[in-house]
Structure formats: C-alpha cells, structure tokens
Amino acid sequence: MFSLLTQVGRQRIYFQVDSERLRDFIYRRYRVLREGALETVEADLQVKVYDLYGKAYNDDQSVVIQETDDSITFTRRDYMLTASLDYSQATIHTHDDFSLRHALLNLFSSWLIYHRKGLLVHSSCIVEHGKAWMFSGQSGAGKSTVAQLSLPRPILSDEATFVYIEDDGQVVIYDSPFRSEWEKPCELVSSPLAGIHFLIQSPDVYRVPLSKGDAFIQLLDKVFFWKPNHFETAKMISICKQVMQAVPAYHLYFQKNDTFWERIS
Amino acid sequence: MSEMLTGSLIRKENVEVAQFDGEWILLELDKNTFTKVNEVGGYVWSIIPDCPTAAHIVDRVHAEYGADRAVVERNVATFINKLVEIGLISFEYSG
Q1: Checking CA distances to A200, which of A147, A178, A263, B89 falls within 20 to 30 Å?
Q2: Chain B residues with beta carbon closer than 8 angstroms to that of A212
C-alpha cells in the first residue's frame, strides 16, 4: 500500500492506496503533504482505496445506499464506498479514475454535510479581484466554458465547487480537487465567496438578481448529495440556507465570450 | 368554511422550512418537492401546532394583521384547502 497525507481545504485526508495508478491519481489532483505510513494519523478522513473493482460506468447513474448500525455503503456498478457513520473512515473499491473521482466526491460531500461544514456544488468558481464567484448549472449549462473563458483568472473549480462555512459563519470557497478538465490544484488555496450565478445561455449578456428564496431553491438542486436519511437532508438544507443568507445570487444570461465579466466586476 | 372550522389541522411530518424575509419555502423531504408561500402563508404554517382549528387561525391572523375578518376567513380557507390538496396538512375530526 502507498500512504499519502493530503490537504483539502481545512481538512486532512490520509489515503492508503493499493496501486501506482491510484498513487498517481492522488498526486495529480491533491495537495500531498507527505508520503509514507504514519504512526499516529492526525487526519479528518482516512480512506483506503483498492483498484480493479466492477465494470465501467454506463448511463445508469443510480447509487444504491445501504445503512447498518455502524456503517453506510454506496454502491454503483463502477465503485463501492463503505464508510463509518461519521464518514471519517472509508474504504473504496474502484474501477477507474472516473469512478474514484465520483466515489471521493460522494464521500467528501457526505463528510461536509454530516459535520455541517459545507457543500459540494455543481458549479465552476473563478476568482476576480480577490473574491470568488460561482457559476452554477447542470451538465451542459456552461460551467466549464465559463472557466475557460475566464483565464488567466484563478480557477478554484470547474465542476464541483467546495463551499465551506468557517467557524465565524463566513462562506469561503476552497480549491476543489474534484475537477473535470483542470487537474492541477489552483495557485490560490481559498477565497471568500462574493456571489452565485445560475447560468442561462443567451444571445445577450446580462444578469438579474434573484430573491433569496428563489436562489435557495436553485441551489438545493445543484448540491452533490445522495440522500441517506432525512436527518442528513435537513442538515444539507440548513447549510444551503446559511449560504444564501450570506451572499447575493443572480441569473446570468451569457454568450460564449468573456463579456459577462463586465456585468460582474 | 363551517366544516373546516371544527376539524383539527395536522401538519405533515418531515417538512423543513426555509424563511427568507417575506418568502417561506416548505420542503417535503419524503417527496423532494417544495412549496413557496408568502409571509402570511408562512405565518399560518408556523401557528398550526398552536391553533388546532381553522377558526383559531382566523382569529390569530386577524389579530396579527388587522385585516377585515371576512377577507381573512376567505383567504385562510383558500390557503388551507390548497395545503390539503397538495398533502401538506390534513384534517382530523373527533366524535
């Protein structure tokens, strides 16, 4: 096994992986603090990952959730994730990079919500003048396009934005390891969230402020979340409320060029 | 309204509430659906546990907002009927 201690936002994740391919995966996407087995593990999450599981992903996205007295298991045809009920210890059996990315996203999202620390949101996130702006939407909405068009601004995420609630209630975006096209960590570690844009492709470029209630409803639909039980769902809802109380939100009508930044900054 | 005045109102379980200024959103965890209501609607939802009948609710809304009682009665009846229709509340009749 290869042992790697990594940093994701304020959390430390200790990986033990059973192949060089998996070790390379961690190095490509995570900030590795050190490699080698630790005698005492001071990590928020400890994750063991095993290769060569199951079959390649197809269009069947269904995740089966089974909960026992001391563990919860998420199974998809290309991965199986078993975690302690507080998500601090987990074992993942994975088929390939795609499935491992999804399994880790599932695990970390569940950990954040369980500990009421934050959310992972279907969104890209770009930093402009020291403030983070989210651009949210489902697949095909233009999240990655917005990221590409925004270069050379720092990109904190291009697919799953890591929204974190600090102890003082401030909403901060941390660099997300859950990326689709930009694998390498961002040069910035974090930035305070300035606002959220929900993307609508349009021949004209303009943005329309949303009421808190409408923005909250939009945000709920964009959170990466596999509903294990009502209690966790209630926590997720509560975190979404906190985020929407803290920052403004807009519908951003945009075309595929960078003029939308003139409407923002 | 007469039958409605005497039945006890029961709120559905597993409904989370999000309140933003004058907007209230009722989220049904069982069905993954939401219902958006205005400030008075949210107030009515919040007082149902303390006001067992529609008549009690009319009294409280009338006292709180000071609107014409006949108008309050009509609006509360419409609102409660709508919540019954979508399954967010039900009636319980004793005797």
Answers
A1: A178
A2: 20-21, 23
How many contacts, defined by CB atoms under 8 Å, are there between A and B? 35
The per-residue pLDDT for A155 is 95
CA distances in angstroms from A140 to A131, A147, A159, listed in the order given? 25, 13, 11
* B37 CB within 8 Å of a chain A CB: no
Distance in angstroms (rounded) separating the CA atoms of residues A131 and A138: 23
pLDDT 10s digits, A118-152: 999 999 999 999 999 999 987 788 888 899 999 99
Whether B95 has a pLDDT exceeding 90, the answer reads: no
Which of chain B's residues have a Cβ under 8 Å away from the Cβ of A209?
none
Please report, for the domain that includes residue A189, its CATH number.
3.90.228.20
Q: What is the nearest CA distance from A212 to chain B, expressed in angstroms? A: 6
Sign of CA dihedral A29, A33, A35, A40: negative
> End of a domain among A114, A131, A149?
A114
**Contact in structure between B27 and A218 (CB atoms under 8 Å):** no
- Closest alpha carbon to A125 in A171, A170, A191: A191
pLDDT for the residue A101? 93
Assess B24–A contact: CB distance below 8 Å, yes or no: yes
The last residue of one of the domains, among A95, A114, A133, is: A114
Q: Mean pLDDT across the stretch A252-265? A: 88
